[in-house]
Specification:
Layout lengths: L1 H8 L1 H24 L4 H4 L14 H8 L1 H34 L5 H11 L8 H10 L6 H25 L3 H9 L4 H12 L1 H16 L3 H5 L9 H6 L9 H30 L6
Helix pairs in contact: 2-14, 4-14, 5-8, 5-11, 6-8, 8-11, 9-10, 11-14
């Protein structure tokens, strides 16, 4: 009887959690269902949740156009390369800031954080002119570098906090046993920091995947542009291809959602790494 009362005590909390989750997921669910509606059903009033006539024409239209396949490939390639660089550079920088006594380390950390505060719109013209002068306009390298620059400060801060949570005594024991500093980093610290690295890497990937502003001004056409630019093409001056937009959005979000389901505990661990020492 007491156990049932204890379970009933949390019923309002569970109900509130379900309601909040539904409110958060409702736009995504509605977008997915809209992608299966004919264009005439999108504008009916009052709007309906489920399609009366199911159609996959928007998805067939996406896969039948080679340029959208290029957009998807470019998006994944740029995001993966940027994530790889962020994880490597962020791990080395975070470990160094966590373990070594550096002059003006606090000032350096604040400077890294200040890099995250620059709005992208302020840097549009300088980056555009620089890419043209260096011959990097409409190249993968330009987009990878920019995505890495904007995501790296957050990655460094999170991984620095995660390395702080790993006891130094473990590394000292490995050094006493004869391991070099490089082996300690690769064989001892890296496995312990796996959760933080995966979590911050996922955040860096999402940051690069959602990049639109610089991808728009530094590319031309589907040769190097990611899917965010391809999605913007469907917003015409006189008409908007709504079910096509919903179909591409669903295809863009679904793989990330599947991956996030499997790595969500690492993402949460990476974010919360500095909370408890």
């Amino acid at each position: 009887m007491t156990r049932k009362r204890g379970q009933f005590r949390y019923f309002p909390l569970y109900t509130l959690a379900v309601v909040v989750a539904f409110l958060i997921l409702f736009p995504a669910i509605f977008a997915v269902l809209t992608s299966f509606k004919p264009i005439r059903e999108i504008f009916v009033y009052p709007p309906t949740m489920l399609p009366h006539t199911w159609t996959v024409k928007p998805y067939i239209s996406v896969f039948s156009q080679e340029k959208y396949l290029h957009y998807f490939f470019n998006g994944y390639f740029i995001s993966i390369c940027s994530t790889f660089l962020c994880v490597i550079l962020g791990s080395l920088a975070g470990y160094g800031l966590s373990r070594f006594k550096l002059p003006a380390k606090r000032t350096l950390m604040l400077a890294i954080l200040a890099m995250q505060m620059f709005p992208g719109a302020v840097l549009m013209i300088p980056y555009f002119n620089l890419s043209r002068q260096l011959g990097l306009y409409n190249t993968y390298l330009a987009l990878v570098m920019i995505d890495t620059v904007f995501a790296l400060p957050l990655v460094i801060w999170l991984l620095k906090s995660y390395f702080d949570s790993i006891p130094v005594s473990i590394e000292e024991a490995a050094l006493i046993d004869g391991c070099s500093q490089a082996k300690v980093l690769l064989l001892v610290v890296a496995p312990l920091a796996r959760a933080g690295v995966i979590g911050t890497g996922m955040l860096a990937f999402i940051r690069a995947w959602n990049e639109f502003l610089f991808a728009l001004i530094l590319t031309k056409g589907p040769e190097r542009a990611p899917i965010t630019v391809g999605l913007a093409e469907l917003f015409g001056q006189y008409s908007i291809n709504w079910n096509g937009i919903m179909a591409i959005t669903t295809l863009a979000v679904l793989p990330l959602l599947i991956v996030f389901i499997f790595v969500q505990r690492y993402v949460i661990s990476g974010i919360m790494s500095g909370g408890v020492k």
